Fold this protein.
Amino acid sequence: MLGDEKMNNHEAITIAQKLVAESKSVLVGSNDEAGFPNIKAMFNLEHNGLKEFWFSTNTSSKRVAQFRNNSKASLYFVDFNNFCGLLLIGTMEVLQDDASRKRLWREGFEMYYPQGVDDPDYSVLKFTAIRGNIYHQLQNISFEL
Amino acid sequence: MLGDEKMNNHEAITIAQKLVAESKSVLVGSNDEAGFPNIKAMFNLEHNGLKEFWFSTNTSSKRVAQFRNNSKASLYFVDFNNFCGLLLIGTMEVLQDDASRKRLWREGFEMYYPQGVDDPDYSVLKFTAIRGNIYHQLQNISFEL
C-alpha cells in the first residue's frame, strides 16, 4: 500500500497472514460465568491459514471451564510497534482425544503437564474463525472466513 | 521471589503495578452484540493505580457502541518476553464531558480527531476494575480491587 490508498480485502488478508506467521503468542478472548470478557496470552502453536488454530492448556484451567460453558471466542494478534492488530471471531472447542494431544505436543511440555502426553490435565483447544478484522495504518478492514 | 516460593498477594500487586507502569499499550476486552468477546490494543494513557484507567477513542468506533450496549470489560497487560500477564475485570464507561476530554488530550491526537478536543468523534473510555489476576512464573494469583 502506498500513501492514502485504501487497503483492499486481498491486501488485508495478506497482512493478516504475515502477522499470524510472525506471532509467537496470541491473545485469546473468552467469557467468564458472569459474562465478563477475559483475555489470556497463549502460544501460537499450530494453525491452518486464518481459519483454524490449536492451543495447549491445562484441563483444570479457567479457560477450559469458560469455553465448556460458552464456546464464543476470539483471537487477537498484535504488533505493538507497527500499530497492527488482527481480531478473529469464532468458537473454541475443548479436545482431549489422543490424536489431537499427540499432534500438539511439543518438547518441554512436561513443565506444564508432568505426566506427559497422556496427562489428564493436558487438553487441546481448537479455535474456528467465522470472521476477522484487521487494523493497519489507521484503517479497519473486516472480512468473512 | 526466589525458587519455588509461592507469590503472595503483596508481591502479586507489586508485579502488576510494575507491568502497568511499563506498558505503553494494553489489550481491551469487550463483548459485541452477538456476545462474542472482542479484543483491541489501545494506548495506556492514564491510570489511578490498578483501579481506574482512561483511554481515548472515536465516538463512532465499534468499541463505544459495544460498551454502551454492555459495560462489562477487561484489560490485559502482557510482557510476552517474561511470560507475565495481568488481567483486570471491571466495567467501562463512555465519557464525553469537556473535563474528561481535555484531561486526556495528547499532542498528536489531531491525527485521530481532526477537529481537536471538541471533535464530536472524540470520546473518553473510563475503566473501573473489580478484580484482577496475575500470571507470573507459572503461578496465578487472583485479587480484589
About this structure: Chain A touches chain B through 30 residues (CB under 8 Å).
